[in-house]
Task: structure prediction
Amino acid sequence: MTDVRGTEVRVPTEDGTADAYLARPADGAPRPAVLCFTDAFGVRPTVREAADRVARAGYTVLVPNLFHRRGPAPVVELPGFIDAEARGEIFRRLRPVMQELTPERATADAGAYLRWLAELPEAADGPVALTGYCMGAGLALRTAGAFPDRVAAVAGFHGGRLATDDPRSPHLAAPRITAEVYLAHADEDPSLPPEQIERLEKALTDAGVRHRCEVYPGAAHGFTQSDTASYDAKADERHWAALLNLLDRAFRSGAPT
Result:
């Protein structure tokens, strides 16, 4: 297996400096870059472990603290395991933090992360891949629409509120997306009801985006997060297979389209 080096880094943005985790193969050779947008709980041990797993597959992975304006991650105290009781209290404290990350701020930050990767010696030249979890799935879609020339592939898992009536809803980025998109939805997810899934699929289809949307039966919102009560090992392994296959198509099976 590929040896991996993980380090804490700092990325300059328009609104200060974002702390981030960088994982890459230890040989230091330039590899295709993956920008990961976390769930609301942010950068933490399980997220670093996931970034290391992607790096072991031969990629350079940047995982920024999306809420860097509030300080270093985690911006609220997290228990080692987030059960249903803890989840409610954590979100009570996170809600105002999440509301501060407007689409405009998130897009400006994404541009800064992409510029930083473009200058990183360990990142290969060319477009990057985006992956996003929960709220991060929407951020990934918006970023792909805002920077189509910089994004080769997008993967989103158990995303919420991806196709709402909001005039800034993530699905409205579809006409500007040129990357291949893979989205895996949690079954019976209240944050992404069937009507939103249908609206999202239609937006991608109408825009001619090469995509695949799947619902993982029986999986709860947050099914990839092993430090939460929502974790589903079977769905998580399916997520890993889909993600690594997408990255392989984007970077190893021919030039990105």
Notes: The two ends are 29 Å apart (CA to CA). The mean pLDDT is 96. The first helix runs from residue 45 to 56.
